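Dear Dr. H.,

I hope your travels went smoothly. While you were away I took the liberty of generating a structure for the chain from your last submission, since the lab meeting agenda had it listed for discussion. I wanted you to have the full record in hand beforehand rather than looking at slides cold. The sequence, exactly as received, is reproduced here:
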Amino acid sequence: MLRDILIDRDLFEKIQEKILDEEIDNEDIKLKKEMLEKAVFKKLRKKRSIKKYKRNGIKKEDLKEIIEFAGMVSLEIFGGPSDFEIEEEHPQWCSHCGTCCMESSPIFIHRDELSLLLRFNPNLKHEIISNDQYPEHFRFKEDIPCKFHNIEAKRCKIYDSRPHVCRSYPLVLMGNDDRPYYVLDLYHKCDYAINLILEKSIILFDEAVNHI
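The corresponding predicted structure, in token form, is as follows:
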């Protein structure tokens, strides 16, 4: 299979198993993952038609496996850009649909950004509480939906000083302060997530094809 050119199958399965083990609700994650991959596949099939590559034995399943792989790893392992670096290059991917504003919880506020947030929005001091999961950090009191999302205008009321977690979505910062890393929030309804996986899939597909 095309993906096997990029990564050993046994190693891929180990990575896949580790990711699922770290998730609390495997069934929910699998469903979101499948829907995200389906959305990406529709776009990738238009950009990389398998008809052109059939003589090399490439099939529809190859595209699907590349998409699955793109959703699991960062291109850094191939010396490429990180997910965050790719995302920063394409702010136009955000369609301002508001999905992240209406369905994300908790909206994390790092302790180091609290003072800056309050400096520009002093009225927020009663809207921020301690984060239950990380007591040394904070969160918005109301976040499903976030009360600072203007549904009609599809814009954030505190956009210029919004927390980092909002700026980096659909990438979510994980780990501790010493070893932070980003993971993709597998959200099929987010255009940003779909386009991020699409971009990575195209890069991985072309890289594999070049080695056939």
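Two observations you may find useful: The mean pLDDT is 87. The CA atoms of residues 17 and 144 lie 31 Å apart.

With kind regards,
E. W.
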